[in-house]
Amino acid sequence: MAAKRGGGSKDRGSASGGRPGASDSVDAPRLVARDVLRAVRERDAYANLVLPGLLRDRRISGRDAALATELTYGACRSRGLLDAVIEAGAGRPIAEIDGALLDVLRLGVYQLLRTRIGAHAAVDTSVAMARAEFGAGKAGFVNAVLRRAGEKTVEEWVEQLAPQDPVGRLAFEFAHPVWIAQAFADALGARAGELRDALAADDARPAVHLVARPGEITAEELALVTGGEEGRWSPYAVYLDGGDPGKLEPVREGMAGVQDEGSQLVALALTRAPLNGPDGGRWLDLCAGPGGKAALLGSLAAIDGFHVDAVEPAEHRAELVRKSVHGLPVDVHVTDGRDSGLTPGYDRILVDAPCSGLGALRRRPEARWRRTPADVAELVTLQRELITAAWDLLRPGGVLLYSTCSPHLSETVVVVADAVRRLGAEQLDTRDLLPGVTDLGDGSTAQLWPHRHGTDAMFMSALRKP
Question: Could you write out the DSSP letters of every residue in 413-456?
Answer without folding.
Answer: HHHHHHHHHHH--EE--GGGGSTT-----SSSSEE--HHHHSS-
